[in-house]
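Per your request, structure below.
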C-alpha cells in the first residue's frame, strides 16, 4: 500500500494546529495586544478551566513538568536522606528531581503488562525513611491507585502523581467513583510539552491539589517563595507558565477529550490489524489496558520479541516510518544515579522492557491510510 508521499510523523502538531488555527491565532493576538506576557489574565483563566475539567480544587501553573515535580517535593518539606519511591521504568525527570533535592530515589519495578508500578512493587521499598511515593501514569493510563493510596494512608506517606503522560485518563475505584489522573494523591503534576495529549507551543506544566494550605505553599514556592511581593517566606524558585502558552492551552483544553478519543481510535485500529497479523503474539505483544483505567494513548507501545526490536526499528525508519524507544535505559542503569539511588528489588522487568519496547506513531491526525502503510511495513519485516 502506497503512502501517497505523505511524511509520517510521530506527532502531527502542524495538522492539529491548522484545525483550530483561527482560535489559536486570536488567543495569541489577544496576549500580544495586551502585552501582559507574564501572569496575564489568561493564566488564571486556564488554571480555573483545567481545575474544572479535572474536578480538583487547585491548579498551579508552572514552567514545565519537571518543575512541577520539584516544586511538589519542596512543598512537602522533605529532608535530605528521606526516601522517595519511584518506578525504574520512566522518564528521567521523575527521579532526577528527587536526587536534585538531596533525597534518595528508591527504585521499584513495574508491571509487565501495563508498564506501571503496583502496590506489590511499592511494598518492597518501604523503610523507616520512606516519606513519599511517585506513581507514574505511563504512556497514557493510570496506575492502580486505590491500593497505593490505602497503603500510603496506612504508613503516612505522601503520594505525588506524575501525570505528564496521562492527562485526561480516568481511574475507577472499587466503589464506582471515577477520578481523573493527577487528582487522587497529595499532589498531581503534569507537563504541557508540545507532544503531550494537551500540549502548548513551548514549555509548560501544572500542579494539582485539593489541599488549600498545600496549594498556597506550592504557589509561593513557584514564585520565589513569596505570597506578598518582596516578602519571601520560604526558599522557592521562579517557575511560571507564560501568558501566550496559557492562552494556547485554554483553547486546546476544549478539545482534549476529542484528542484523547482520536488517539484511542488510532490505537484500537492498530490493535485490531496487528492482532489479525499475529494472533498468537509470536512477534510482539500488544499494549494492554488496565481494567480500572481508561487509556489516552500518549504512546502506543509494542513489546518486540526475539531481540528483533532494533532491526524492526531500522526497517521502519528505512521506509519513512518514525518510531521511538521509550526508554532505552531503565533508571537504575543511568550513570547519573550511581551512588544516589537504591533499588528496592531486582529490576528485571524494567530492564526487559527497555530492551523490547517500540512506540509507533500515534497522534490526533493519524488516519487509517497511514496506519495501514505502517502495518504493512511491519508485516513486510516479518515476511522476509
Amino acid at each position: 500500500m502506497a503512502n501517497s508521499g505523505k511524511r509520517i510523523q510521530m506527532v502531527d502538531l502542524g495538522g492539529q494546529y491548522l484545525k483550530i488555527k483561527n482560535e489559536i491565532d486570536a488567543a495569541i493576538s489577544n496576549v500580544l495586544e495586551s502585552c501582559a506576557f507574564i501572569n496575564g489574565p489568561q493564566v488564571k483563566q486556564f488554571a480555573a478551566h483545567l481545575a474544572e475539567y479535572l474536578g480538583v480544587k487547585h491548579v498551579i501553573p508552572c514552567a514545565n513538568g519537571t518543575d512541577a515535580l520539584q516544586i511538589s517535593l519542596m512543598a512537602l518539606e522533605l529532608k535530605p536522606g528521606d526516601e522517595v519511591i519511584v518506578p525504574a521504568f520512566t522518564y528521567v525527570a521523575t527521579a532526577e528531581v528527587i536526587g536534585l533535592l538531596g533525597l534518595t530515589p528508591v527504585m521499584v519495578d513495574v508491571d509487565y503488562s501495563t508498564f506501571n508500578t503496583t502496590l506489590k512493587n511499592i511494598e518492597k521499598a518501604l523503610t523507616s525513611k520512606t516519606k513519599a511515593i511517585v506513581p507514574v501514569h505511563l504512556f497514557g493510563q493510570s496506575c492502580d491507585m486505590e491500593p497505593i493510596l490505602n497503603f500510603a494512608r496506612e504508613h503516612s506517606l505522601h503520594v505525588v502523581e506524575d501525570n505528564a503522560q496521562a492527562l485526561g485518563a480516568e481511574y475507577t475505584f472499587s466503589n464506582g467513583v471515577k477520578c481523573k489522573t493527577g487528582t487522587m494523591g497529595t499532589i498531581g503534576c503534569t507537563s504541557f510539552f508540545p507532544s503531550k495529549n494537551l500540549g502548548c507551543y513551548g514549555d509548560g506544566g501544572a500542579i494539582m491539589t485539593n489541599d488549600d494550605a498545600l496549594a498556597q505553599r506550592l504557589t509561593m514556592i513557584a514564585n520565589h517563595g513569596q505570597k506578598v511581593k518582596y516578602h519571601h517566606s520560604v526558599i522557592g524558585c521562579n517557575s511560571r507558565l507564560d501568558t501566550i502558552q496559557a492562552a494556547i492551552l485554554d483553547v486546546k483544553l476544549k478539545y482534549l477529550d476529542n484528542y484523547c478519543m482520536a488517539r484511542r481510535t488510532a490505537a484500537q485500529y492498530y490493535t485490531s490489524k496487528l492482532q489479525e497479523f499475529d494472533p498468537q503474539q509470536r512477534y510482539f505483544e500488544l499494549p494492554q489496558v488496565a481494567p480500572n483505567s481508561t487509556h489516552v494513548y500518549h504512546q502506543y507501545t509494542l513489546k518486540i520479541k526475539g531481540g528483533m526490536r532494533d532491526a524492526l526499528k531500522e526497517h521502519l525508519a528505512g521506509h519513512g516510518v518514525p518510531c521511538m524507544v521509550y526508554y532505552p535505559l531503565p533508571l537504575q542503569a543511568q550513570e547519573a544515579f550511581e551512588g544516589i539511588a537504591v533499588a528496592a528489588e531486582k529490576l528485571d522487568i524494567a530492564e526487559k522492557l527497555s530492551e523490547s519496547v517500540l512506540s509507533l506513531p500515534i497522534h490526533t491526525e493519524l488516519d487509517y491510510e497511514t496506519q495501514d502503510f505502517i502495518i504493512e511495513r511491519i508485516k513486510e519485516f516479518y515476511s522476509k
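The radius of gyration is 21 Å.

Regards,
D.
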